[in-house]
Amino acid sequence: MKLKKFIVVSSVLLMCVGNYQAKACVDSFAPADCYMFSVYNHNKLNDESIQNKCIAFWKNYTANRVSEGDIREFLYGQPTSKHSLSVVKYLQLHKDADALHYLELINLMNSLTCSGDSWDYPSKSELVRRKHGWITLFVDASKHITASKRLGSRYWLMTMRAAYYSGNRASCQRLWDRYAGKYPNDCVKELAEGYIASYWFKDGEREKAREYYAKIGDLRSLRWCFNGDINLKGIETLYKEAPNSVAFTYLIQDYVNSMDNQTDTTDYGYRSYRLSAYDGKADSIKDAMFSEMKSFRRFAAKVVSEGKASNPALWQSASAFFAYFNGENQEALDELNKADGMQGTQRMKDNIRAIRFLVKSSQSNDSHAYQEYVIGELKWLDGMIKAEPLYTDWYGRRNHYVDVLRRVVYGRLVPGYLKLDNFCSAASLMGMIQNMVEVNSYDNNSANAQPFNYYSNDFFWFLDSAKVEDVVTYAKLLQNQQNGNELQQYAISHSNNDMNYFNEMIGTKYMRLQNFEQAKTYLSKVSVAFISKMNIAPYMFYDSYKMLWFDWLDKNVKKERYVGNKALTTNPKLKYCDDMLSLQQQIRQTKDSVQKADLLYQIANLYAQATLHGDCWTYLHYSWSVNPSYILSEEKEHYSDNAIASVQEAYKLNRSADNKVRCLFALAALSPVPWFYNAGEYVGDTYYNKKAYNVNSMQWKSFAELGTFRSLPPYTKYQLNRCDNLKNYFDYYKK
Amino acid sequence: MKNIGLYIICLFLFACNRYDKPVPDAAPSVYFWRTTLDLDKEEISFLRTHGIKKMYVRFFDVELDNQGLPAPVGTIAFLHSVPRGIKIIPVVYVEYTCLKQPDTLAAKIVKRVLAMGDTNDVPIDELQIDCDWTKHTQKNYFELLRAVKRGLQGRRLSVTVRLHQLALDVPPADYGVLMCYNTGNLRSYDSCNPILDIKDVKPFAKYVSKYSLPLCVAYPVFSWNLLFENRQFRAILRDVNLGDSTNYRKLSPKLYQVVRSHSVPSPDLNSFGMMLRRGDEIKVDEVATADILKINSMLAKKRPSLDKQVVLYSLNAKDLNKYKPYEIKKIYCR
User: Fold this and answer.
1) Exposed, middle or buried: residue A440 (CB in 10 Å: 0-12, 13-18, 19+)?
2) Interchain contact, A231 vs B115, CB within 8 Å
3) Interface of chain B against chain A, CB under 8 Å?
4) What are the tens digits of pLDDT across the range B293-317?
5) Within a 10 A sphere around the Cβ of A134, how many other Cβ atoms?
6) Beta-sheet pairing, B274-276 with B262-264
7) CA–CA separation, B240 vs B36, rounded Å?
8) pLDDT by residue (tens digit) across A180-237?
């Protein structure tokens, strides 16, 4: 732990870069909005890679006899722990005096850094001790730089560190000048260079410092070098000073992506929402951004024509991307083709290819040539995703090429095919990306893997919001893949196509439309084993015949909605369909009004139970929330309306007091608007309670009419005298 | 009879003035709120010109760390010493969320402050605690102060007093500094001057006369530019040149409009900068000397000893250069 802290604290290298670019991928993550422009791998920019390299060094040094865990503990954990001491034991066993001495100096160095307690503050004597300690370390370590056979560079780094912390700048510089050329360009040398870099910038050798921070990917320090001038003005200034600065790779990437953040609209992502906030203004933010992008493009053209830049592909591709933002797709493609033929790193070339894919994906069509192109690029991306290490952050397990895939598929291909009314191509691509990316099939880290039948992901929401006919067509395609076009076949072959999932969803969609016959057709194809594993399975045990508006009378009614992991033995949705069909038929056939009223009363309850207010909400929904606005937004199926209509008809058909009372109470319970609501407000810091009354609400009217039945037997039979809400209503009336 | 009369007169006078005690060793003072103690020539000149005798220097803040424990943050680095003859009084700002274990916290604060003084050759004979406490956190805060006072072993303890705290119980300290700044809500577009507005101070003035703790007063000499988009607060802007007519149009002395959408650097190193949109408005808040004097006059009428010591917030050449020397002199009541 101490060593790790020392490295972090002392080295200007490790100033929290981490997943900088990943974090920059918008505050509210929408998969369609990932950054596209990547000419450096931001995944590599974290101190873990240096840690891993150090651990690898010691593993090799100890001939793999000491475990990685023990080495990690020794270097970055507790040096005196049992695990750490195994390193020392190994060295003692092999009589490696040199390495043992080095470890002694490491311990000395750790003792010179801050203690673990943030409240400690060094005393004067402690500062003197530390200074002497650094000087001792300097003298001792410097003797071993050339004497040590295997640890020379590490002694060198330690000596430079000691010179730096004892304020001996001249020695630090001498050490660098004398030994830098002797050692390979590894992490040790990078750390050593960090000490010199901090002097460079203070002395005005900005280019040297910038190049160093750019080389090691220390973006924070790099930005500090630019003092905030990281947009076009900063780029132009830097070009004047150093046309081939390594820093351009980072500056231009950051600049392009910041413009991307503000301008690119997608049909799927939320950026279009952000831009729409500015619509209608004559000189909106969009205009300003486009104007600046035009200026950049002119500048980039100048840079390319002057021939001073060693990576003109970088400039040209950035210009091409800006052309795309401006809607000049053909211009963008032409510039990308030009960029492809220019000098640039392999990553820059890959970047060009990714951007080209994005531009072309805006032109979705069903031609054979286009499908072949898309399949080719999807295969290429598949390979790129596998080649680059994945990392996990707030937005899941990903790397840059996962982001590219998401941006192209979610942001362009899928919306494009939907616009062409090609639901099957859109759905197959959604299924493909769900399986390839979201279910982590690229990584064996199964702890993060989502099961395919997961009801809170983009694929689910895509299908859930689609028309049932479209999903039916897609399901047919899944079962007859040879009938699909090449792209559909490719995408489907990379999807998880469990027909239980689709049949279950189609059946539920038909239930929402109250087409219970069709619902049964599909639900009967779904295995009970599948339903038992659904996210809503634990909540499917409620009795739909329990009268919803009277369940408060039953002391034994379970208020907890979650009833555990019992296995289902039947599909409750199928039973519900059967019940509904039976009741509907009986209602149609019954001539007796009293009987009909009874049947209508029952069916009203079934309707109500399946709403989000009911216990059987799982029949129509895949999630539930206490948020009232969620409940309201989900009530598209008119089950509530049907429940109310059924009760109202039942009320009319049977004029008995018993029927009226139960129907009125049901209507009061089903009323979307309560008889009163809290209209309190804050005045300053004090909240003042206030009630407001909805006299036109169904609940108010039902309660009012129930008042006329207070002295009659049905009122007592249904125990309405125990209803607090009703009591409050009557109390209000008395006032 | 005469003696009784004299006695009654003295009693009356005493009753009127028993709360009106000046702070000990009252002298012109400043707050210093940066994280490195390095003064430039202008700041040193200011200290000398105005005979500043005390600098209330923020030593560190106390906030909850990742483990939810109080920890010091933003500790000052002593790069230079202050001119001779100026006393440094350490100030520690304590987040109210850190008040769960006041005794333990007090011991840590005192130990650290004394250690900092010792290492950097800063004699410590007083400590000031700054905390935005309320009625709900009063108990623990007062315990903290009592524990700090015990730990200081005879040294002085002062506290900051915000206007709203005047209506609450008096903290157990030797004296307080009444913070007459940040009186309004900077996020409110309609707020006249959230830095200092007499309208915000007036409701609390009645508490000043009877506040039973020796008090002095602190006034602001800083300014800020507040960005509003459709009257919604967006950010405090730094380093914008409002005189650039290609980007800004002056609507009034305190209000500018963005005439061309453009980007400005962001102070946050993790962000690229901010886009200012045409139509956005920038409110310039600064406090005129006349306003400070007016407020001071109002408060001093209630409590004459209040301005025996005036503390300016804060020592910063960029802000202080906006005031003429005679204006500063007036504020210091010289």
Assistant:
1) buried
2) no
3) 65, 71-72, 75, 108, 111-112, 115-116, 118-119, 239, 260-263, 265-266, 269-270, 272-273, 275, 277-279
4) 999 999 999 998 998 999 999 999 8
5) 21
6) antiparallel
7) 24
8) 999 988 888 988 988 988 888 778 787 788 888 877 777 667 767 776 566 787 889 8
Q: Are B227 and B235 in contact (CB under 8 A)?
A: yes
In angstroms, rounded to a whole number, what is the distance separating the alpha carbons of residues A106 and A161? 12
**A interface toward B at CB cutoff 8 Å?**
20, 23-24, 118-119, 121-124, 127, 220, 223-224, 228-231, 254-255, 258, 262, 278, 281-285, 287-289, 292
C-alpha closest to that of A7 among A154, A204, A201 = A154
DSSP label at residue A45: -
Measured at the CA of A58, the angle between CA A57 and CA A62, to 5 degrees, comes to 125
How many CA atoms lie within 13 Å of A375's alpha carbon, on the beta-carbon side?
Answer: 19
Cα B18 from Cα B20, distance rounded (Å):
6
Chain B contact set for A287 (CB, 8 A):
261
Distances, alpha carbon A487 to alpha carbons A365, A375, A490, in Å: 11, 6, 5
Q: List pLDDT tens digits, range A676-710.
A: 988 877 666 666 778 888 889 999 999 999 999 99
Q: Which two tokens stand for residue B45?
A: 């000149």
Q: How many CB atoms lie within 10 A of CB A396?
A: 16
What is residue A10's predicted lDDT score, i.e. its pLDDT? 34
Q: Where are the alpha helices (DSSP H) in A344-421?
A: 346-361, 368-387, 400-408, 414-419
Mean pLDDT of B119-135: 94
pLDDT of residue A83: 66
- Residue B161: what pLDDT? 96
- Could you tell me if A481 and A493 are in contact, meaning their C-beta atoms sit under 8 angstroms apart? yes
Whether B324 has a pLDDT exceeding 60, the answer reads yes
Cβ neighbours of A292 in B, within 8 Å: 263
DSSP conformation letters of B109-156: HHHHHHHHHHHTT---SEEEEE----TTTHHHHHHHHHHHHHHHTT-E
Determine if residue A641 is left, alpha or beta; phi over 0 gives left, psi from -120 to 50 gives alpha, anything else beta.
alpha
Q: Are B102 and B62 in contact (CB under 8 A)?
A: no
Residue from B164, B263, B276 whose CB has the most chain A CBs within 10 Å, to mutate: B263
> Cα separation of A146 and A98, whole Å?
12
Q: Answer whether A127 sits within 8 Å of B262, measured CB to CB.
A: no
What pTM, to 2 d.p., does this model score? Answer: 0.67
The rounded distance, in Å, linking the Cα atoms of A162 and A186 is 20
Decide: A605 and A670 in contact? Cβ < 8 Å: no
pLDDT lower than 70: segments of chain A: 1-33, 42-49, 77-84, 114-115, 219-220, 223, 227-230, 261-286, 393-395, 439-453, 543-544, 555-566, 626-636, 682-687, 735
